[in-house]
Design a protein that fits this description.
A six-stranded mixed beta sheet has the order 1-2-3-5-4-6, sandwiched between helices. With 171 residues, it is α/β, with parallel strands linked by helices.
Length: 171
């Protein structure tokens, strides 16, 4: 699988960027960032709901209820990049952020076995955050964002980083 890069809707978008894990699995991520050079703070989401599945297509009933209840969601975005429970890059990229969406192991375009809330998944997200902080387009300031599942996985990784926990798996 090769990554594609394009400028679309005033964003530099890289599709299916490879993030190598310590055991040889390669996670796939989409990066939405401002066009041009520069280091940006990054908002990460990591989960099993298929980074490339649009909210409107994958969750039609929920989308209809959302726009009926909160029509301002439609303001300031074409909504082409809306995804279940994630930030809209068309609203965040113009503010100077990069948005990184990662398919967790065994979900979407990432190979492997899906094992939600496992030590392995925590390690994968932790290493994804570390990888993100070292990219040429990253300022090193990396936040994890989301609701529901995407919010819960933040706690396990956050606890690991703030406690300087020993590795889950031997290096």
């Amino acid at each position: 699988m090769t990554k594609r890069s394009e400028i679309r809707d005033d964003m530099q978008i890289e599709w299916d960027v490879a993030i190598a894990m310590d055991d040889g699995i390669v996670l796939r991520a989409d990066v939405f960032r401002p066009v041009g050079q520069g280091k940006r703070p990054v908002i990460i989401s990591y989960g099993p709901y298929a980074k490339g599945l649009s909210f409107q297509e994958g969750y039609k009933g929920n989308w209809a209820r959302l726009i009926e209840a909160v029509p301002e969601v439609l303001v300031g975005s074409t909504n082409k990049y809306q995804n279940w429970e994630l930030v809209d890059p068309e609203k965040w990229v113009p503010e100077g952020y990069a948005c990184l969406r990662i398919d967790s192991r065994g979900a979407g375009r990432s190979p492997g076995k899906l094992d939600v809330w496992s030590p392995r998944e925590t390690l994968d997200l932790y290493r994804s955050v570390e990888w993100t902080g070292t990219q040429s387009w990253s300022s090193g300031k990396v936040g994890i964002n989301g609701i529901s599942y995407y919010a819960m996985n933040q706690w396990t990784v956050g606890a690991r980083t703030t406690q300087r926990a020993p590795p889950i798996f031997p290096e």
